[in-house]
Amino acid sequence: MMKQLIFILSVCLNLTLVHSVMGQTAAADNKVSESVTFRAMPNDPAVYGIFEGRSPCGISRWMDSSMGSDCDHLKWQLILFQDTRTLKPTTFSLTTEMFSGRPLKGKWTTISGNRNEPKAVVYALAYGESNQVLYLYKGDENVLFILDKNRRFMAGDKDFSYTLNRVHKVLRPLPDH
Amino acid sequence: MKAILRTGLLFLAGIYFSSLYACAQVATADKSSAPAVFVASTPCSPGSKPLPGIPREAGCELIKWELQIFGDTGKHASGTYILDCTYGMPKQGTRGFINGGSRLHLEGKWVTIKSTATNPAAIIYRLDAGKSGGSISFLRLNENLLHLLDTHDQLMIGTGAWSYTLTKIR
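^ inputs. structure came back:
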């Protein structure tokens, strides 16, 4: 009788566990995705990470690179570099359609969050001659959220958001034409 | 002794099936107040079909979400929701789907859970997925943004094209 009881309890427990995880992506399947590239990308310990995403065009206004009314969305590729010995932030390269497609380069640092969330980690990317700053909220190691000048989250739309995801770049040969 | 065990067994089985029934019930959304509506276009892959009701073998690279949350999320810890999604393979050069995509409709109850192991200040919305079973969880970034979580309440990692952040449109 005791064996039967243990068996039924374990079946119930297993069913409950299965029941509870259905409907969401299992943590093991939540992985950094591959992103194809046709040119060699930096891939050494000095690269902290490569993050990509697509955002609405609204941010271009306050980054002083207004994109005009025909802008549908912006493609972001951010490469963050670190000191290989201390692992501290060093430089970055940000490529978007803004600034005529020229990569934006500068230095980045980590700072604390705003008054509402002082323990949050925010990346501050300084660029341009007047040292303008682009703020990124660190959701975790793999997900960053672009913030506005006042370090507040930015709202996207039904197609795009102000979120950047860590990607694993995969080099492929240029397709034949 | 056997009678006690048998009674205990029946009691435990009763509790278990009651809890399953409660989870499987579809809550009727209280439509008396205007919902908060969140939208997004998110990835979908064979390994990470983030919604119940999408068959494992279904071709799915994109999901378009419309999530209606009933109940004041700022004041209450629970309420009801309606989730309508279209999923499938994206049609190149458009924002649509090949053959229009497939539809998914879920409705049920949501509750908030405060604090996670890694973030004590976090607020998580847990949506009971109704008849489909399981749950869908979002991290509240602010009153306008939600981000989908995995089974360990970690942020879902998007791709270079799409992310798992939902934006409030009204």
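Chain A touches chain B through 51 residues (CB under 8 Å). The longest helix of chain A spans residues 2-21.
thumbs up if we can close this ticket
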